[in-house]
Amino acid sequence: MTQPVANADITTTSTTTIPNAAKTDLSTHQSKVIKNSQKNPLPDPILTEVNRRCRIAAEQLKRYSDVSQLPADTRTAPDLNIGFGQQRALKALQTALDIHASGYHVFAAGENGLGKRTVISRLLQRIAVEQPTPDDWVYVHNFTDPRTPMALHLPAGQSILLQQQVNNLWQQAKKRLNQRFRSDHYQSKIEAIKNATHQQETHAYDALNAEGKQYDLALTFRPFDNKAVFVHPSQLPTEDTSVSDSISDAANSNTADNNDDGEVKVATSHLNNNNKSTSAKTKTTSKDIENKHDDNGYEAELSNFAQKNHMQKRLNQLTIALEQLEDEANDAIEELHHNIAKRALQPLFTPIRELFTENQSVLDYLEAMFADMVTHVERIVNGDDEEFIAAVLATTPSRYAVNVMVSHKPDSGAPVIFEDLPTHLNLLGHVEQITQLGTVTTDVSMIRAGALHRANGGYLLLEASHVLEHPYAWQGLKRALQSRKIKLSSLEQMLTLTGSLSLSPAPVDLNVKVILLGEADLYYELLELEPEFDAVFKVRADFHDDVIRTNEHELALVAKMADIIDFAKLYPFDNSAQAALLEHLSLQAEDQDRLSLHSDLLIKLLHESNRHARLENQRIVDVHHVTQAIADMDERSGYLRDLYWEELKNGQQLINTQGQAVGQVNALTVVSYADSEFGMPARLTAVIQPNIGAGDILDIERDVDLGGSLHAKGMLIMTSYLRALFSQHHALNFSASLAFEQSYAHIDGDSATVSEACALLSALANIPINQAYAITGSMNQLGEVQAVGGINAKIAGFFDACREQALTGQQGVVIPMANVKQLMLRDDIIEAVKSGSFHIYGVNTLSEALTLMTGLPIDTLNKKKRYRKETLFGKVLQRLMLWDNNQDTGDTQLEEVTDKKSKKNKKRKNVKKKRNVSNNKMILS
């Protein structure tokens, strides 16, 4: 520091006389200063200016939340605004809800984990409370067409009432009918009908028997088929009784059978029973008849044949008359049954009709049910038909069961349903079947409701990806929304293309708003692949990933934290913990001025922070617990990162964080695998082949199918920029190749464009690059540096690599200036920047990046508008011209050698020719 002062003194006293000794000392001192300046040249002013302009201060590396502006703890947080940060989506949703035209259903598009379902569900629940409660729906037996059960709608809450009333009606009806058909009055009525019929039959048979006696014929009944025939009196058994006695005995026998064991049985087909009893009373056997026939002779029977034939015809006429008489008797009994049933059932149906007087469809059903019970009263009382017997777990036969599909509490509002398993059956309902002894049966009681039935009159939320996973689910949903009807169909018939017989329930009118939840990519795929998708889901509600970071929004997020904490019953979080969570949400949003809205991440952080507080027996969560939770999450997802750092320590990964190298640069990359993402430096190298090609650049990653389309685009942009930069000054007489060393995975993205340009220009100019720096950035064809993603992870990756190899105070990263607002770095990196052991630079152009990386001016022009020789671009042009000169020199030398050889060969030919001439002369002489 004293040498400059001495020089200043000498300069000010230049007019005075200086002794010789002093002159000698001065010359010695000046020579030392010149030598020192040659050893340590002053930095280029351009480099100094770029360094000053691009250096990022520590205050710019992270935005901290103001703790004083936050609540003391989450118990004093403001009320939650459900639609916070999603006003655009909620406005679109409200538009769809206000329009009741066909197709105004909603596709809520946004990343998984944003809490789309929670936000929409809460909003719909608020709206649904004020909506009218939809009707109940039931399925009942169709007495006209049993294969097509009827769908009835009733006011909310009345479906259960109807079901209970019908169940009670059945129990009372069965009991009352059994009493009426067991009564003495019923038995006397039956006896009267039977006796009257019996008397008419007896008189008819007696009259016919008397007429047969005129022809010496007697009426009898064959025992083996109970058929009435005329025979000769000699063929009758000796102990036979009269026809009237046989009929009377048969009637008495039938009455005794009916009253056996006190069982109640409805009388049916009485005349048939009488005939059978009469035949039982007849003692004549076929063997006796044959004996008589043998005794009297065949001649006597032939003589009586005409008379017998005549009487047999009369018997046939009597039989027809008796059948009509039997039908009249049965009709009389049936009419008696119906009258008894009507008188017994009418009082039971009247109260139910009064309950549902305003519902004509229910009244019509009750009328049909009443008529059916009257018609089948015999089968109901006898209890020998499965259709009129209740199943094991039921109290009412399925024929008279009321199957409640959907029931709502009165004044409960519209339903809000989320179906987590949207199969075809769960969406549209289905008809169950039961197998008994190899027979498959079903009935109206086995019809099951789907999500559309439960959400009818309200709102249905579905995950779009889940709907598309199940066969025919999307087709069924689309058909129902377009037709506005829920029609149950057999999925078995759809899949197997068979025509198996099953129920075909009547369709139900549909009035519902469906909200599909999914990512934006799925929405675009559906638009492209499903032609009718846009016609069904006309409204798209976009959910944002983040929100602007303001004090108001920070308080809104604290309110969201408090809501989650109250729901999960966690410990309250103080304002320091709130601030740490907000800063982490900014890190996830990769922007100092934005906050991530991913609910899943926030819920995870809250639960894990609460765990650390509980383990330390703390009743409130502070910043220390949040930091521990973040560190735990980072450690769990850092397995691959630890493997990389282990390879770096062992020297298996070749990364230099010190020194210089030509055509070699540390590029910042991000490794993404499943839920793990971390930054790491990668060595990028460039190799030049002079005088080969015309500026062709080989992208090794692309040629071996390890580079993606975005990476290839960055390479082409960089190539175009270099061609435009130098081709106007000199032909590009080289070819080059670029590669990421020790990279064996797929590479994509254009964030390595700037680093590739640095490596290539370094190799072209033969100027080394400072290996203490790492660089990232995209670039356009004008040489402007553009923002990239994952900037915080990239910086952290190179910082960790430098720390592993010892921080020297010279290391740092070069990033796009456009990424500075996205910096939310770790506190240890910020401390290193404050202490000067690590540096971060932001650049706007490729020239600024090259200046920092090489320490040279890049594109300074002289008066002739040419790059100066000491600039990087000037050195590139010198190398291009040198290669061209070397090529020309090589060509000139080759021509000279060729000329010498041709002259020498010509001289040899002349000498040989002279020798040949002299020899000729000698011969001629």
What does this structure look like?
- The protein has 925 residues and is an alpha/beta fold.
- 52% of the residues lie in helices and 14% in strands.
- It contains 33 helices and 29 strands.
- The strands form 10 sheets. The chain has a 7-stranded mixed sheet, sandwiched between helices. The chain has a 5-stranded parallel sheet with strand order 7-12-15-1-16. A 3-stranded antiparallel sheet has the order 3-2-6, covered by helices on one side.
Q: Give the structural class.
A: alpha/beta
Number of strands: 29
Average pLDDT across residues?
Answer: 81
Largest sheet: 7 strands, mixed
N→C terminal distance: 103 Å
What is the rounded Rg?
A: 53 Å
Measured as a percent range, the helix fraction is: 40-55%
Low-confidence stretches: 1-40, 249-264, 267-293, 911-925
Q: Give the overall form.
A: elongated
Please tally the helical runs, counting DSSP H or I stretches of 4 or more residues.
33
What percentage of amino acids are in beta strands? 5-15%
Strand order of the largest sheet: 22-23-21-20-25-28-29
Features:
disordered C terminus; alpha/beta; seven-stranded mixed beta sheet; 29 strands; 925 residues; elongated; five-stranded parallel beta sheet; 33 helices
Please give the structural blueprint.
Elements (H helix, E strand, L loop, with lengths): L1 H11 L7 H20 L5 H10 L32 H12 L7 E4 L6 H14 L6 E5 L9 E5 L3 H25 L1 H30 L4 E4 L6 E4 L11 H16 L11 H12 L4 H11 L1 H6 L1 H51 L4 H16 L1 H6 L19 E5 L9 E4 L4 H5 L1 E2 L2 E3 L2 E3 L5 E2 L2 H5 L3 E5 H6 L3 H11 L1 E2 L4 H6 L11 E2 L3 E6 L1 H10 L3 H4 L2 E4 L3 E3 L2 H18 L6 H15 L4 E3 L2 H17 L7 H14 L2 H12 L9 E3 L1 E10 L2 E15 L5 E4 H4 L5 H18 L7 E7 L12 H13 L2 E3 L2 E3 L2 E2 L5 E2 L4 H14 L7 E5 L10 H9 L3 E5 L2 H9 L17 H53 L1
Parallel strand pairs: 1-15, 1-16, 7-12, 12-15, 20-25, 22-23, 25-28, 28-29
Antiparallel strand pairs: 2-3, 2-6, 4-5, 8-11, 9-10, 13-14, 17-18, 19-24, 20-21, 21-23, 26-27
